[in-house]
Design a protein that fits this description.
By secondary structure, the chain is α+β, with helices and mostly antiparallel strands. Among the domains are: about 95-170, no CATH class; about 215 and about 330-450, no CATH class; about 220-315, PDZ domain (Pdz3 Domain), CATH 2.30.42. It has helices at about 1-30, 75-80, 100-105, 110-115, 125-135, 140-155, 160-170, 185-215, 235, 255-265, 325-345, 350-355, 355-370, 370-390, 400-410, 415-450, and strands spanning about 35-55, 55-70, 215-220, 225-230, 245-250, 250, 270-275, 280-285, 290-295, 300-310, 310-315, 320.
């Protein structure tokens, strides 16, 4: 129970720090571009604690510990298109039988606004003028406004027609905020969006850099043995804790993954290991014990397969580097993460490699059992992954926003509120499906592991 609470605290703390870093990227660039930021909140839901207001931004801690957000003025879909879609029915069709139904279908009005207007006293000429004034974005066009104002100034209107046109023009009123996201140049909006993923990438990179010259990083040149399972093949072969593996079957070992692969591919087959013990090389021979596991083939089919096991845990040596070496190793890690993520996303094994909240909690639990350095290193890797995944061109994600800004730049005008809302709903559907798939896969792996 205590371990579960500790894992939950580690997970929430890690997620909170990574979200703050990501959202701070959006926040600071928005401020630099003169945008108004209304809210910077850690977590979602109801506000638990109001930390204060500074330079027009309210800082809050909310009730649901799942991430956080920054609220920049003018970033809602309706705002981005410079106003909400007031008149969602553009023309009177066969389904609208009465003038009153036509009025209600325009949805720019409430029932209270229509009180006092006798629909039957509004002529077809006035209704047609309104229909023609509404553009494709469900708002009045500039020419349409001029025509309706001209019609309103005429003397041929009765009282109901006059009230009707005044209501139409009032419903379409939109006063832009000069400090809103939607009023800024395209390049500034793109910079604000990109700043979040960039900060996630940079934050993960920075963690590794600092670890390199403070607490150290795992030494890839040290392939050691931490402990040997009592009664295992490794113990019987003479392997001991503190040994360092130099080669297997005459092949030099570059990393521990190679050790696992060679042993796993050799069930029932003797392997010769050269180890370093107390400064001297020794040779030992071990025959990996065959263990049957569920194995997923490249075609997605799961089969029973025998893999080799000898029974020992790796020893990780944390090595401190100079600042220059730390920067070099961090750059290598970032480049490798970008490469591996790209390969994973576009491979047939993407489903096996992607993990959701359940998988992440499991990894946090394992890391907490080994030591705090592993947790910090895992946070760096998750921050980098967060930055990369947020750049995917799916609406709702930052990459999707950049895609929509690119479309705006190509065609030379903003997307309408209808197009923005469609894109958001499409993106939400994709994210929802991916979430269900990933969670299902996580739970399947969890229960299959314990069964």
């Amino acid at each position: 129970m205590v371990e579960n609470i500790k894992t939950a605290l580690y997970f929430i703390t890690m997620l909170s720090v990574l979200v703050i870093a990501h959202e701070w990227g959006h926040f600071i660039v928005a401020k630099m571009c003169g945008m108004r930021v209304d809210d910077f909140s850690l977590f979602f839901g109801k506000r638990l604690l109001r930390l204060g207001v500074r330079n027009g931004t309210e800082y809050n801690i909310r009730s649901i510990p799942l991430g956080g957000f920054v609220k920049i003025a003018g970033m809602e879909p309706d705002d981005i298109s410079n106003g909400h879609p007031v008149f969602q029915t553009l023309t009177r069709d066969d389904h609208i039988k009465t003038k009153r139904e036509f009025f209600k279908s325009l949805q720019g009005f409430t029932e209270e606004q229509l009180v006092g207007i006798n629909a039957e006293n509004v002529s077809a000429r006035v209704i047609t003028s309104v229909e023609e004034a509404i553009g494709d974005d469900s708002r009045l066009t500039a020419e349409g406004k001029l025509q309706l104002r001209s019609l309103l100034e005429g003397t041929a209107l009765n009282e109901d027609e006059h009230k009707y046109l005044e209501a139409i023009l009032a419903a379409d009123t939109y006063v832009p905020d000069p400090h809103g996201y939607n009023q800024k140049p395209l390049w500034q909006r793109a910079a604000v969006i990109f700043a979040g993923p960039f900060m996630s990438l940079f934050f993960g990179y920075l963690i590794v850099c600092v670890m390199g010259f403070t607490g150290g990083l795992p030494d890839p040149d040290h392939i050691g043995v931490k402990l040997v399972t009592p009664g295992s093949v490794a113990e019987k072969a003479g392997l001991r804790g503190g040994d360092e593996i130099v080669s297997i079957n005459g092949k030099p070992i570059a990393d521990f993954e190679t050790v696992v692969k060679i042993i796993g591919d050799s069930p029932g087959k003797p392997i010769m290991m050269v180890i370093m013990r107390n400064g001297q090389q020794q040779s030992i021979t071990a025959t990996p014990k065959a263990e049957t596991v569920d194995w997923k083939e490249p075609n997605g089919k799961t089969i029973k397969k025998a893999v080799g096991r000898i029974g020992f845990a790796p020893d990780v040596v944390w090595k401190r580097y100079s600042v220059g070496e730390s920067i070099q190793r961090s750059s290598s890690l970032l480049a490798n993460s970008l490469k591996m993520t790209a390969q994973t996303i576009f491979s047939k094994k993407a489903g096996d490699s992607v993990g959701g909240p359940v998988a992440i909690v499991g990894m946090v639990h394992q890391a907490s059992q080994i030591g705090y350095k592993y947790i910090i290193l895992m946070a760096a890797e998750l921050s980098i992954s967060l930055g990369i995944m947020n750049l995917l061109p799916i609406p709702i994600l930052d990459g999707g926003h950049l895609l929509l800004l690119g479309i705006e730049g190509i065609r030379g005008r903003k997307l309408s509120s209808r197009e923005m809302n469609f894109a958001q709903m499409f993106g939400l559907s994709i994210i929802g499906i991916l979430f269900v798939v990933v969670m299902t896969h996580d739970l399947w792996r969890l229960f299959s592991h314990h069964s």
